[in-house]
Every structure is written in C-alpha cells, then in structure tokens.
Amino acid sequence: EVQLVESGGGLVQAGGSLRLSCTASGFNFDVYTIGWFRQAPGKEREGIACISSDGSAYYSDSKEGRFTISSDNAKKAVYLQIKTLKPEDTAVYYCGADSSRSQVRRWVLFGHQANIEFWGQGTPVTVSS
Question: What is the pLDDT of residues 28-81, one digit of tens each?
Fold first, then answer.
C-alpha cells in the first residue's frame, strides 16, 4: 500500500519555525520526486519546493529563503523546514510524489498543476499573529 504521511504541523506564533516531515512507503522512493505543497482556505494548492533522490532541489521563487527542503533516503523521508513563520503561511501542507521529476518541478516553479501520483493527507499549520 502506497502511503505518504505528513507530520509536524500545528499552531505556532508568528516568527517561529516548524519542521514538517513526510514519510513514504509502498513505492520506490529512489525514483520519485517528492514535493511540498500547501493549500490555504479558498485558494489553490501551491507548490513550495521539491527534491529528488539525487538531492536536486527546486523552490518556488516566492518561497526560497524561509523554506528549506531536505531528504533522508535511508528513512524514505522528506522534510520542510520553515523559518520566520507568518500568518499568511497558515494552510494545510501536503507532500506529493511523482515519478516524473519535471511534472513536480513545473508545479513548484511555474504553478502548472498536474496529476501527481501520490498525495499525503496533509498536516495543518496555523500561524497566529
């Protein structure tokens, strides 16, 4: 069974930081690109960053700086560190996996939504001012 499980979300004050985790199982992690996305109420899902098993990482222009994506291939996990959280970062954060690196990258870099193969259930992040 394919699973992507996000964790690490919660309620945090503005200016704080969070580290979100995404653990994968049931598919060949080494050939998939994992992306972090978020969706705020009433808004479209937006890409934040993605990383492939060779360590290549890409960020949405607006997200580079406060967001850092990393992975641990041995643990089949991808992390998203978020610093200096702002109320506008409030959203449900999802990880998604696809065997097409370009598909995930296009969403993250250009906002071109695609049919990502696997999604997690999301972890909510609420930033209070």
Answer: 999 999 999 999 999 999 999 999 989 999 999 877 689 999 999 999 999 999
Task: Provide the b/e sequence for 85-99 (b: ≥16 CB within 10 Å).
Answer: beeebbbbbbbbbbe
Distance CA 65, CA 67 (A): 6
Task: Compute the average pLDDT of residues 4-11.
Answer: 97
31 to 28, 70, 104, 106: CA distances (angstroms): 6, 16, 13, 17
Token pair of 37 as six digits: 């996305």
Q: How far apart are CA 5 and CA 47, in angstroms?
A: 17
Could you tell me if 113 and 107 are in contact, meaning their C-beta atoms sit under 8 angstroms apart?
yes
Q: Can you tell me whether residue 52 is helix, strand or coil?
A: coil
Mention every residue, 6+ apart, whose C-beta is less than 8 A from residue 69.
36, 48, 49, 50, 51, 57, 59, 78, 79, 80, 81
